[in-house]
Design goal:
Largest sheet: 8 strands, antiparallel
Number of helices: 6
Distance between the termini: 34 Å
Strand content: 15-25%
Order of helices and strands: EHEEHEEHEEEHHEEEHEEEE
Oligomer: single chain
Helix content: 25-40%
Radius of gyration: 22 Å
Number of domains: 2
Strand order of the largest sheet: 6-8-9-10-11-12-13-14
Length: 347
């Protein structure tokens, strides 16, 4: 996922990037981190980060919170401290101070710098925060003396505000913990799986019904439920980008889903069962607990009546054509519900 490149080409250095400084009108507050004692495979021991709050209200900076969350879950890093935040008219500059194990050679320092840079660039790309016009959106400085690295990057204010709205929507869904849907005209023609035929309903915000109903105190503690509901809702936002996701409920323990899998550049038809979902969370802490991905259609463009579908295989993604499978009259608009549209499911 991280493309290799030379150490000098496209890198932002101190020569072509302004030195980070705290803006006079910026406000930076601390946020409590989590300490799980993991050691980073990149020879990092502790990462000190924080959250910056807007001066006009109590809402945490969404970029800081998301980076904190992603680095913890994906790399097992400890996140604490305050970043420096400089807000300009069009973009916000973030500078994080990262505590590292002091490199014992120039080669080790260069290697660590590259890994830190690639880690943050991958995170920015995954969140669509990176500026596509820049060769590199991250600058990393590791002084010869000391045990800290400075990591700097910019995010456009318009992008940050959009992510802020997304974060508020996620929090609202988790707090409400209630599934909402509406009927659609979508139909699936699939002689080899008759159970796919019949009525399909649209899931509000692209989050299926079982994401709310299958997480209960019967299987998890209240503390675990709080964490899991947060993770599950965020996972669906990441997988389908809030694009309209449909479900067909077979019974309380089995659902079929038609959804976008944005990270794999495809649409899928999946079967989810409560048994598989709960078992994978309990045994592996894996929230991607589908029972089976049966079919896929390459590309993220809107589904069409005459699309060619394929049998799904985890290794090749396209195991073979399914000529008699058709998804007809699939809705093509987004499933986001704005604050002004609370009474409706679509816009």
């Amino acid at each position: 996922m991280i493309c290799s490149r030379s150490m000098t080409a496209g890198r932002l250095t101190t020569a072509n990037r302004r030195r980070p400084r705290r803006a006079k009108n910026s406000v930076s507050w601390g946020i409590y981190g989590f300490h799980r004692g993991h050691m980073c495979k990149f020879a990092l021991f502790n990462v000190f980060m924080g959250a910056t709050f807007a001066a006009q209200g109590p809402v945490p900076d969404p970029v800081v919170l998301e980076i904190k969350r992603a680095l913890q879950s994906d790399y097992g890093l400890t996140l604490r401290g305050d970043p420096q935040v400089e807000v300009d008219e069009e973009e916000t500059n973030y500078t994080f101070s990262v505590k590292i194990e002091k490199p014992n050679s120039r080669q080790a320092r260069t290697k660590l710098q590259k890994r830190l840079e690639d880690t943050f660039e991958a995170l920015l790309a995954d969140k669509n925060w990176a500026d596509p016009e820049e060769d590199s959106s991250v600058s990393v400085q590791i002084p010869k003396k000391g045990k800290r690295a400075m990591i700097m990057f910019d995010v456009k204010n318009s992008v940050k505000e959009e992510w802020q709205r997304r974060e508020q929507r996620i929090v609202s869904i988790i707090k409400g913990n209630e599934f909402r849907s509406e009927a659609t005209n979508a139909q699936i023609v699939c002689p080899e799986k008759p159970e796919l035929q019949g009525d399909w309903e649209q899931c509000a915000d692209g989050v299926p019904e079982f994401a709310f109903n299958w997480l209960t105190t019967k299987d998890f503690t209240k503390t675990e439920l709080t964490e899991l509901r947060d993770r599950v809702v965020r996972a669906w936002f990441k997988w389908n980008k809030q694009y309209r996701t449909l479900q067909k409920k077979i019974d309380d323990n089995t659902f079929w889903i038609i959804t976008m899998w944005s990270q794999k550049d495809m649409w899928t038809i999946e079967r989810w069962t409560k048994r598989s979902f709960v078992r994978k969370i309990k045994n592996q802490r894996n929230i991607c607990g589908y029972d089976k991905i049966a079919y896929c259609r390459p590309g993220l463009h809107a589904l069409q009546n005459n699309d060619q579908w394929y049998k799904f295989d985890l290794g090749t993604f396209q195991k073979g054509e399914v000529s008699n499978l058709k998804v007809r009259d699939y809705p093509t608009t987004y499933s986001h519900v704005s604050d002004a549209e609370e009474g409706e499911l679509s816009r």
